[in-house]
Each structure stands twice: as C-alpha cells, then as structure tokens.
Design goal:
Number of strands: 5
Number of domains: 2
Distance between the termini: 56 Å
CATH superfamily of the largest domain: SUI1-like domain
Helix content: 10-25%
Mean pLDDT: 88
Structural class: alpha+beta
CATH topology of the largest domain: Translation Initiation Factor Eif1
Number of helices: 2
Length: about 120
C-alpha cells in the first residue's frame, strides 16, 4: 500500500486521534453512536394535508420525536415511496403533494400508529 507522501519529509504513518498510537497498533474500542431509537410501535404519527402559499399542497407528518428517530432516513424512505420531494422542518416531515393514503399505509406497515 503506497501513501501519498511516501519518500518525502511529510511521510508519516497514520495515528489514532484518541490515543496517538499508530493505527495498526491502536487498542481503542470503536466509537458507537449513543443515539437511542424509540421503537415505531410506541409512537404515533399525525398526518395532515396542508395548503401552502400559492396553492401548493403538502402532506405533513408530525408527532415523531427527533431524538428517538432517524428522521432524515425516514424522510428519504417516504419521498422515494411517494416519488415526490420533501423536507424536514422542525421535526415535521413535509412531502410535496397529497399522499395521505399512501403515507398512512406505509407508516402502518413500518409499525407506527397513525392518526
């Protein structure tokens, strides 16, 4: 394996950021995410169709906590299922268009309680 600066004065083997040992000799445990996810069965999602300025319609999903969910990943899954754009605004998922029935079915299949 060749390194970018091999043979130059800048040639230094990579070291661990936490203990300073060479990466090959490092004994540090791997970093784990401290995020605790709440199971979908214990959460209730509230769905509504809202009308924005200029007449645009969006489906809004509220009631899911940002601390207990991976909302960006869930938003990506919902957008791809609906074939529409969307965004995450203040822990509310917004999907462009009227997809109330489709999202209700998908969220129920994932395990969320839906209102």
């Amino acid at each position: 394996m060749s390194r970018l600066f091999a043979g130059t004065p800048f040639d230094r083997p990579p070291t661990c950021d936490r203990c300073g040992a060479l990466e090959a000799d490092c004994q540090c445990p791997p970093l784990e995410s401290p995020k605790i996810l709440i199971p979908p069965e214990k959460q209730t999602a509230t769905l509504r169709v809202e009308k924005r300025a200029k007449g645009k319609v969006v489906t809004v999903i509220r009631g899911l906590s940002a601390e207990g969910n991976d909302l960006p990943e869930l938003l990506t899954r919902l957008k791809s299922h609906c074939g529409a754009g969307g965004t995450l605004v203040d822990a509310a998922l917004e999907i462009q268009g009227d997809h109330l029935a489709r999202l209700k079915t998908l969220l129920s299949n994932i395990g969320y309680r839906v209102k």
